[in-house]
Amino acid sequence: MEDAVVVRDLVVDRGRRRVLQGISCAVPRGAVTGLLGPSGSGKTTLMRALVGVQTVRSGTVTVLGRPAGAPELRRRVGYLTQASSIYADLTVRENARYFAALHGRGHAEADRAVADVGLADAAGQLVGTLSGGQRSRASLACALVGDPELVVLDEPTVGQDPVLRADLWARFHEMAAAGTTLLVSSHVMDEAARCDRLLLIREGRLIADDTPDAVRAATGVNDLEEAFLRLIRASEAGQRHAGREAS
Ligand SMILES: Nc1ncnc2c1ncn2[C@@H]1O[C@H](COP(=O)(O)OP(=O)(O)OP(=O)(O)O)[C@@H](O)[C@H]1O
């Protein structure tokens, strides 16, 4: 089956910096792909390019068979940004019902989306009065309520306690089993092990695109955090070597 997302030679500049330096990768359908990398490595920028809100210098991004950002993709792609993007002066339920209506969904779907992120008890609360972790889950409910085919989630589990994190990952896998494609960024390496596939980026370059088991096998360590450190060191050594060759 054709991949949900295909990225070819993507170069993005932000300000005066080259933030993505020619990334090529694919996101398979019906799976949870983790996007991992150090702070500032370009994860959010890559996600922005996928949802079509990032100006790109060169390269192509194809999403569900269409160019990223094509108007017909709007209803088919859900995006959770790091900053809350819902209405502070509406309740959780009102927000979810509003976003549901934009996707032609009813109250039942909205209430289910709120329950799915563990906010049923806070459904009547104004978003402006929620804790940071609750607000992030309310945004997640709104990103998922239209049942999009591709879901792009920028650090959806930040600020959540371990029990909620486990519940959210179980929900992501349920959605993948039902055919949804998920791309989830994370800083937390133990979350890498929960993904079906991993994309690891560093300084705007892709240094791994594989399953967690293949990353472990390639690096010879079980712990994914240690495996990533090894990949990062190997890519640094490769760049130093390339620099010497060039000079
Ligand atoms: N509007 C902007 N103008 C200039 N540079 C920017 C802008 N936004 C981001 N950058 C730079 O682009 C680089 C990549 O940022 P990005 O937000 O994609 O990283 P990230 O991997 O998502 O980081 P984090 O994990 O901390 O969210 C960083 O060096 C950042 O400083």
Automatic annotation (TrEMBL):
Task: Enumerate the spans annotated as ABC transporter domain.
Answer: 5-228
Does the record carry Repeat as a key word? no
Q: Which InterPro entries match?
A: AAA+_ATPase, ABC_transporter-like_ATP-bd, ABC_transporter-like_CS, P-loop_NTPase
Which Gene3D superfamilies does the record cross-reference, listed alphabetically?
Answer: P-loop containing nucleotide triphosphate hydrolases
MF (Gene Ontology): ATP binding; ATP hydrolysis activity
The cross-references to Pfam families, in alphabetical order and at most eight, read:
ABC_tran (PF00005)
**Keyword annotations:** ATP-binding, Nucleotide-binding
Instruction: Give the signal peptide range.
Output: none
Q: Which PANTHER family match?
A: ABC TRANSPORTER G FAMILY MEMBER 20 ISOFORM X1, ATP-BINDING CASSETTE, SUB-FAMILY H, MEMBER 1
Protein name in the entry: ABC-2 type transport system ATP-binding protein
Organism of derivation: Micromonospora kangleipakensis
